[in-house]
């Protein structure tokens, strides 16, 4: 696969976030950190996007190919990339 640029990574993350219910659902429904469903993997255009639900001591994040985005109630913000 071709290395992702930031815009493509953001688009893939947004698609994955929408597939699992949107930013409010992910941000507003914290999971227990050791629960079976604390993470979700979503395939988007051949890439695996990992979504980690937030909990009391850590934010909700989405990861794809080295890019990490924080999932807030109304937006998704890039934290860092490769």
TrEMBL record:
Protein name as it appears in the record: Uncharacterized protein
- State the organism of origin: Sphaerobacter thermophilus (strain ATCC 49802 / DSM 20745 / KCCM 41009 / NCIMB 13125 / S 6022)
Upper classification of the source organism reads: Bacteria, Pseudomonadati, Thermomicrobiota, Thermomicrobia, Sphaerobacterales
